[in-house]
Specification:
The protein is of the alpha+beta class. It is 24% helix and 12% strand. Strand 2 and strand 3 form a beta hairpin. The structure holds iron/sulfur cluster (SF4) and FE3-S4 cluster.
Length: 104
């Protein structure tokens, strides 16, 4: 599976949702997630993210992100259409510690 990681938080560009063939992105207030059981591993969303937040779970230390994505995909509504990024998206692209700021 591919997963959304911390740099999506507070940016939420949503370019990714337009290209997913199985509509497996889910939307929270501050970030999106991918449902790991629905993602077919096609990889087309990865280069679409301006924040480089989408990673394959084959990279090191991705287990916590798979669990994060699964947990919230089951709670949040599906998103299939692009919308405006969050207002501070550009300024906060690359900021560290966003996960801790928003999800602890
Ligand atoms: Fe959707 Fe493909 Fe990205 Fe998985 S890898 S979330 S199926 S676009
Ligand atoms: Fe987030 Fe990147 Fe999609 S910032 S909303 S994963 S395009």
């Amino acid at each position: 599976t591919y997963v959304v990681t911390d740099n999506c938080i507070a940016c939420k560009y949503t370019d990714c949702v337009e290209v997913c063939p199985v509509d497996c992105f889910y939307e929270g207030e501050n970030t999106l997630v991918i449902h790991p059981d629905e993602c077919i591993d096609c990889g087309v969303c990865e280069p679409e993210c301006p924040a480089d937040a989408i990673r394959p779970d084959t990279e090191p230390d991705m287990d916590k992100w798979v669990e994060f994505n699964r947990k919230y995909a089951e709670l949040w509504p599906v998103i299939t259409q692009k919308r405006d990024p969050l207002p501070e998206a550009e300024a906060r692209d690359g900021e560290s510690g966003k996960l801790e700021k928003y999800f602890s």
